[in-house]
Model the fold of this input.
Amino acid sequence: MKASVVNGVGQGFVVEELDIDEPRGMEVLVDVRASGLCHSDLHLAEIDFGLPMPTVLGHEVAGVVSAVGPGVTTTRVGDHVVACLVKFCGRCIECTSGHTFACTTPNSTLRATTEPPRLTRRGIAMEQAHGIGGFAEQALVHENQLAVVSDDIPFAAACIIGCATVTGAGAAINTAQVRPGDTVAVIGTGGVGLNVISGARLAGAMRIVAVDIDDGKLAVARRFGATDVVNASGVDPVAAVRTLLRGGVTHAFEVIGLPQTQRQAVELAGKGGGVHFVGLAKPGTTLEIDSSLSMLRAHTSVAGVHMGSTNLKRDIPMYADYYLQGRLNLDDLVSQEIGLNDIPAAWEKLRSGSVIRSVVTSF
Done:
């Protein structure tokens, strides 16, 4: 099969022929119909996070089940599925408590080192990033990383649910537990930030302020539910938001991963407010926070968000249904549909901020 391979950090994406094994145990073979380009994949390709190379990246995947292993019970051949990089065993205390995103043995869903690899190149094992490896014609994935969705949702829209939507909307709905009447600020209006806005709107937030440095992105943010926008390129965003919402916001979300914007999020939180770090920062990134009496009196909470505290078996079909009901905007997230060979050029567009999501639909 054809796949886009990263042979080393900073070496780019090259389309090559790989071999994929048959499903074993609880594995599912998926014919990939759409695979989104998420910014975190670009980070992994260009920054050394310790991911083994060579590898096949790509974790926003939608497709059709073509074969299942003998232990599979939750999907069958012909099902339309969406993949998610959250791996969970289903047996540990976190999983049985419903916190599958915090599974204590996530890698139990992967093949043991004594088993044949899922992916090979001329007989040599290849790394399958996140247990998915979605920049390819097919993906061999544990059933716990897949959710069945309605056949009615287009694949290009469906694939985005598996990361951008569960992370962004989940940060608002699951992690922050935004309630009707709350006020929200979202710093960064890329694909995940727009989904935070969508989630806050679905949860009933009264005011949602989008903060970015691009007027075009801010205009798009209004289509996702932002009630107010602030262009931080020409004003102090903290002062601007606090002018709009005296006393700060109930929830501040940082979706970029930079210390400067993380600090702004802390300063935006009102009394009793929550600060939620969603953006992926570079390894070793640190942030100094004023923990003086004033912060204690404000009851400010600061938390990192992993994959929107998502229970993927519940949340992915739910978001797909919201889309089909016209209550969740996914179509405006898909800026362009591309082929495997177009991935390098699409990354440049993402880096420049000229697209929200490029989706591979031609393999």
